[in-house]
Amino acid sequence: MIRVVAGRFKGRRLRTPAGSVTRPTTGRIKEAMFSSLGRRIEGRIVADLYSGSGALGIEALSRGARRVVFVEFEPGALKIIRSNLQELGVGEEEAMLRRMDAGRWLRRLQHGAVDEGERVEVVLMDPPYASGDLESILGSARALVTGGMIDLVALEHSARLTPFEEVGEGLRVVTRRHGHSAFSILERAKP
User: Fold this and answer.
1) Which helix (H) or strand (E) holds 67?
2) Which residues lie below 8 Å from residue 184, measured CB to CB, with a gap of 6+?
3) Dihedral of the CA atoms 166, 109, 72, 157 (nearest 10)?
4) How far apart (Å, rounded) are the C-alpha atoms in residues 60 and 184?
5) The model's pTM
6) For 107-141, how does the pLDDT look when each residue is reduced to its tens digit (9 = 90+)?
7) Is the model's pLDDT at 150 over the cut of 70?
8) Mind listing the domains of the chain with CATH numbers?
9) SS3 151
10) pLDDT for residue 40 is more than 90
11) Pick from 140, 153, 48: which is nearest to 98 by CA?
């Protein structure tokens, strides 16, 4: 079990999927990521890709996100997310579950084909560290931020990885390392 770090659900425990299909975000890296995000998720529509237990998306809701889209492919993980949301009393107006591969969901978002009803503004990702399609996913995320389709991407990753090395003009990336894990936040630079 893991806990929600701050906000309206602070201290509440979340169930995690059994086995090695998912790797829950540690409390330390989650706290650091959300501290870096600050108030940039309040009132926003957030997508939690590779949701696993839903910990990142639930943390976002706890800290004031208006709505979270949980994107997860594994049926067992979706069942855990649904259970965690029910335990917290989170309804459909705040949470939407999508059984879909994260890369496919990002590609659909690039083409305007995602049916979340409103513009997703923030994307949180915690992909498997050994994900074979990570380069493609990072390219899609970069294109979405560059094109103004989303405001920022926060990605948890291995500390050995530098995911957004060449971000291009008009973009800014902040990376923080914590032991074997790290996170990077990619967003458009403020003029």
Assistant:
1) strand 67-72
2) 154, 155, 157, 162, 163, 164, 173, 174, 175, 176
3) 10
4) 16
5) 0.90
6) 888 887 666 667 899 999 988 766 667 778 888 88
7) yes
8) 2-188 (3.40.50.150)
9) coil
10) yes
11) 48
